[in-house]
Amino acid sequence: MRKQFDVTVDQSTTTVDALADASGLPKQRIKDAMAKGACWWTQKGKQVRLRKAKRELKPGTRIQLFYDDQVLARKPETPKLLENKGRYSIWFKPHGLLSQGSQWGDHCSLLRLAEIKLNTPCFLV
Questions:
Q1: Which top-level group of life is the source organism from (predicted)?
Q2: Distance (Å, rounded) from C-alpha 114 to C-alpha 105?
Q3: Residues 99, 114, 26, CA angle at the centre, nearest 5°?
């Protein structure tokens, strides 16, 4: 099932509650999709990923959920850290692992897995 939900909040609520009301999906599936990078919101004029399900949303806030159960069900292979020099790192990317994510999720991308492993924002060069 591949669906896109676009919600503009009309009263203060949490992200997961607003998306559950608009989509009809169970809250657990929405939380999983958010953790995997399928939820976006506009912050200071830029579209950014929203991963926190309990974030309070103000009226007028626009959020989007790009839900694709086939993309979200994928299990990424583990990349191997070859060298960490502090300011940059070198990784071995296994076959099938994406370099970067899409609006439908980034949990299978080298960029996201490197951010999680190193616990710091990463930029692909």
A1: Bacteria
A2: 15
A3: 80
This prediction has a pTM of: 0.87
Tell me the pLDDT band of 124, cut-offs 50, 70 and 90.
confident
pLDDT exceeds cutoff 90 at 43: no
What are residue 83's DSSP bridge partners?
Answer: 90
Q: Over the stretch 58-78, which tens digit does the pLDDT of each residue have?
A: 998 999 999 999 999 999 999
Parallel, antiparallel, or unpaired: how do β-strands 46-49 and 80-84 relate? unpaired
Question: What is the architecture of the domain spanning 2-69?
Answer: Roll (3.10)
Q: Name the residue ranges covered by the structural domains of the chain.
A: 2-69, 80-118
Nearest to 39 by CA among 93, 25, 121, 116: 25
The angle formed by the CA atoms of residues 30, 121 and 93, to the nearest 5 degrees, is 85
Measured CA to CA, the distance from residue 109 to residue 100 in angstroms comes to: 5
Cα–Cα distance for residue pair 30/21, rounded to 1 Å: 11
**Whether the Cβ atoms of residue 109 and residue 98 lie closer than 8 Å to each other:** yes
